[in-house]
Amino acid sequence: MTIKLSPDNIRSHFSSAMSEMYRSEVPLYQELITLVEEVNNDILAANPELKQQLEKTGELNRLNVERHGAIRVGTATELNNIRRLFAVMGMYPVGYYDLSVAGLPVHSTAFRPTAKSSLNKNPFRIFTSLLRLELLEDQELAQKAERILNRRQIITDRALALIEIAEANNGLLETEANEFVQEALETFRWHSQATVSSETYQELLRAHSLVADIVSFRGPHINHLTPRTLDIDLAQKKMVEKNMPAKATIEGPPKRNLAILLRQTAFKALTENISFTDGINSTHTARFGEIEQRGSALTPKGRKLYDKLLNAAINQNGNQSSKEGPEQYSQALEKAFEAFPSDYASLAKENLGFFEYHANKQARKPKQDESIEALIETGALICSPQTYEDFLPVSAAGIFHSNLDSNAGADYTNKANQKSFEESLGCQVISEMTLYKEIEEKSLREALSILKD
Ligand code: OOG
Ligand code: NI
User: Fold this and answer.
1) Using CA atoms, how far apart are residues 211 and 139, in angstroms rounded to an integer?
2) Which is deepest, 38, 257, 375, 426, by most CB within 10 Å?
3) pLDDT digit string (tens) for 112-167?
4) The ligand 1 atom nearest the CA atom of 106
5) Strand extents, DSSP E, 216-325
6) Whose CA is nearest to atom 7 of ligand 1?
7) Gap from CA of 385 to ligand 2 centroid (Å)
8) Is the pTM of this model over 0.85?
9) Of ligand 1's atoms, which has the minimum distance to the CA of residue 400?
10) Residues at Cβ < 5 Å from ligand 2 ion
11) Which residues pair with 298 in a beta bridge?
12) DSSP characters for 25-40?
């Protein structure tokens, strides 16, 4: 048989294989999945309008399989190969995230599907960070770290061979794809045996705990997998009730009637036993659990307003971890976001959000020159908000920090370098704003042509 398995199908298989692996590696993750499923079922039962909206946008079916994860790689070659690996599953680098502003020696992108139909099939995303050894103060140690990294190969020989086959043949046959999923999984597996001595590990840890996590192991272990909840406040409450070590504050916008962008919370990294090459045993904290609630994607104008209000709340209150405490931060955040419209009509009118359009097939044909607004008004065109499919740098920094125990406050003051990141990656990152705009325009064109038929 020469039937190829589509990248969408390979991604679905991979996402469920990864979820299964993480479930067995981190049992608390399974508890989180169960908790989120319960919350989602309750919310859908109590909220038919939300259910209808998710049905309309095709998101209801993906809800129970929707996950994102994160990895951290050490070198340009690793990032480049990871890009090729994800491309086999239809995942492409979207967005550039500079985390140096938050004192983290990494910059990142998110590999994810880009077409609406692929997102709805399975929106599996991997937030991928590249270590920036050039930012470390101790350049001698940076060189040592580089030598260690250059010795490892994070993708198996067979996976690399299958990537080459996929590139040459424009896809994989089903048997090849099944093998690829198993081989690719190896890259993300946890290894409790470090590749360095305890002394080197301590040195790396002193430079930055992220450096120790990235350099000391055989590969970029998946450090969390995140299910999507429809009510993060309720899920957070349940996490606390179940004595999960939940983070004190929810990252992102405050709780509002109209969900925008992304809200996230996590349970803190587990302390796990590891052993070094000199036989000494110790512990390492890297892997954690996270949940997210997704809301409307914002236009550049909407995003600018979001950033302004978020910064106002942060500046007013120090930051979340300051002495002021999480309560005060929440209040400052809620107050600041009163300036953000809280209904979809205003979001659309003020050009703050991205939407998608569907034709109401029962509607009458549009009259000549009938405006979009009029078609929406009469119910011929149905306009739904697009879900935000990406990440937020300030939130990501908050998640990183909640899982790092030392020297998280290093000051690299704004060293964004998208160009160097793209050179390592081997291509440019895709602009998320362009994707949302294209989905909006295409859905409008299609809906209008259905109505006119
Ligand atoms: C990634 C942290 C960022 C998110 O959802 O924003 C993240 C990491 O810790 O490697 O996962
Ligand atoms: Ni995450």
Assistant:
1) 13
2) 375
3) 999 999 999 999 999 999 999 999 999 999 999 999 999 999 999 999 999 999 99
4) 10
5) 224-227, 262-267, 271-275, 281-285, 289-294
6) 396
7) 23
8) yes
9) 9
10) 226, 290
11) 353
12) H-HHHHHHHHHHHHHH
